[in-house]
Amino acid sequence: MDRLGRPCVHLTVLSVVYALFVVEVTCGGLGVAELSLNGVWALRNSNGSLSLSAGVPGCVHTGLQLHGVIEDPYYRFNDLAYRWISLDNWTYTVSFPFKRAVLVFEGVDTVSTISLNGVIIGKTDNMFRRYDFEVAGLLKDVNILEVWLMSAVTYASEKRQAHTAYSVPPECPPVVQKGECHINFIRKAQCSFSWDWGPSFPTLGIWKDVRLESFDTLRLLSFVPSPKYDTVLSGWTVEVELFFDVAVASKGIVLLSVPQLQSAAKFQLSLMPGQSNASFVLHISQNVTVDLWWPFGHGQQPLIKLLIDISIEGGETFHIAFRTVELVQEPILESPGRSFYFRINGQPIFLKGSNWIPAHAFQDQVTADRLTQLLVSAQMAHMNVLRVWGGGIYEQDLFYSLCDQLGIMVWQDFMFACALYPIEQDFIQSVREEVTQQVRRLKSHPSVVIWSGNNENEAAIADNWFSIPHEQRQHYVNDYVHLYVENIRQIVQQEDSTRPFLVSSPTNAVESEKEGWVAHNPYDPHYGDVHFYSYVTDCWDWRKFPRTRFASEYGFQSWPSFSTLRKVTVPADWDFGSNFSSHRQHHNLGNIQMLLQALLHYILPNNTDPVQRYRDNIYITQVMQAQCVKTQTEFYRRSRSDIVEGKGHTMGALYWQLNDIWQAPSWSSIALVCVFKVNLRCSSPALFVWLDVEDIPGVFDDNGFLMMSESYTVFFTAWRVTTLKEVVDKLHITSLRDIY
């Protein structure tokens, strides 16, 4: 302690740049010529008053900011000031001097009309789909490609107005979210129209790769290896599915080999013109030991090289991993319900982790470094699972590759959340293609252990969130079953037999199925998974929490660190009663709830300096959040082996939420710029001392700790080059002693 009684921290700086984990994928030509159209395109708005260059992949907001047309969209009230961007229509244009055959868009956000040399070649209406357009007959020596983007807000509104048969709620988000309406009528990130932790930025852009492909015979669209354990043969197999676009009937040889496991086989390939696929099964030699992939904390994560050689095409190298996954739902003695837990490689695993939301409102700003830092941080906090929440996006390939290598399991939602949805044929057909593409893209990843059809939509019907008259309820139940059971579930079971599928979360799972897929009480702790939030009861009283089989959502809000907020504020904003504090809080009564919860165990800061009082209040909300989440998490972990009044055997605790999308109060444990909030590291006996280094991304090896001695050494790992002086200059130390 220093002379004022404050803790003295001896800081040792390790300047580290994290290397990315890279999955090796090499292409052997494949007989396909490719021209990437990523790069600089021309961008203009509908009336031509704005014309500038913009990057692809990218979005309109980023292009405008780079040219100085707008400031940081996250600054103060700019989410409202820049609504005009999302309400306008925009056009991307590029020219290229090649003659090719197929134009491939990996992702367009969202509603577009695409023309080549003045001829419309197609339209898009789904952010989550890949689109291929045949263009061979339209190509010239120099070609002009144009993508006209319609306002997503306008499109959603028009779709809602055209849907006259009956309403499909919700019409609009709560007023406190300051968002746009009818997001359920467009296949776009549902949180992009606003959420209770995020802004309304209905982006427009070409958000993934664009390229041209030419071929004479065929092109390989995708290949999907799936290791499976054959219980009859007591051995491993690898099923490889190959998907082709075939111009001319073709024959060839496919060689599959796993050199490390001394396994190889040849297969005959015969393809007819059009979209064609073939499936082959390689039996792994039983004379070798197969090293299994395990979740973090339970073993290693070996990734084994699989070689795919197609004689008429070329070759591919891919990494696979061997593991089994089961979702066990069995009767429990002395309980009326069923178990709900995951068995990996035959071993019951307690899932401990968090929920994942989009890391930024503008996906082109989610760098590989940023993604790596977030996932490594989750592993350093001893997490073994993340739930990719259904109101965001199917994450980029790097996310899943990193999870494979870090041993972080993924609970993968499909992108439907907190809403009912239309079931017109064009909507359903687009969703079917979306689901097919995403399952084929992701099912080779050992980290993905479960598919879930939606977030909270079973509960929305069961609890009548949208005040649907009783006589109309069955109509919405029928729509629900048609979308999630008769379409999404049917496709998943057809495409992937290696993982469990839940129709919703929370759900009673097999019990919900018995009740026609919408249970009377989807929150029944005797079955399935549960989401639980309570902000008015004492969070230190573990008796208030449901003793559930699996807690897939729970949490409490806090404000991000002052150093995070300072970048998007001015001094007038630094007060809990300011317009800014009200504007950034998208959860009704959220600021009051945080302070009332803190008052149950702490005296609120009363420093006479208003700025210091603001900073102290931020700190108190973080300590409160940390203690609340700690108490609830420890309760669930203690309940693993307990059955009390038929409840218990809790085998999963996933708090809400890991990361932030912008600088605002939320349920997250990691703020937007990798400044750690207290409850990321809550394994210490008590949470008193908090270290913050402002905008230097990195991690302390301990934080939020109880000072038990006169000195304490803490190691800080920086994720960019820094100096000891910079760290010391920006280091802030806060403890309860400082604010009382």
TrEMBL record:
Q: Which domain of life is it from?
A: Eukaryota
Domain Glycoside hydrolase family 2 catalytic, chain residue ranges per copy: 342-556
InterPro entries per record: Beta-gal/glucu_dom_sf (IPR036156), Beta-mannosidase-like_N2 (IPR054593), Beta-mannosidase_GH2 (IPR050887), Beta-mannosidase_Ig (IPR041625), Galactose-bd-like_sf (IPR008979), GH (IPR017853), Glyco_hydro_2_cat (IPR006103), Ig-like_fold (IPR013783)
Gene Ontology terms for molecular function? beta-mannosidase activity
Q: What is its main location?
A: other
Alphabetical keyword list? Disulfide bond, Glycoprotein, Glycosidase, Hydrolase, Lysosome, Signal
The biological process GO terms on file are: carbohydrate metabolic process; glycoprotein catabolic process
Q: Where in the cell is it found?
A: Lysosome
List the catalytic activities from the record. Hydrolysis of terminal, non-reducing beta-D-mannose residues in beta-D-mannosides
Q: Per its UniProt record, what PANTHER family does this chain match? A: BETA-MANNOSIDASE (PTHR43730:SF1)
Task: Cite the record's note on assembly.
Answer: Monomer.
Q: What does this protein do?
A: Exoglycosidase that cleaves the single beta-linked mannose residue from the non-reducing end of all N-linked glycoprotein oligosaccharides.
Protein's name in the database: Beta-mannosidase
What species does this protein belong to? Pygocentrus nattereri
Q: Provide the organism lineage as a comma list.
A: Eukaryota, Metazoa, Chordata, Craniata, Vertebrata
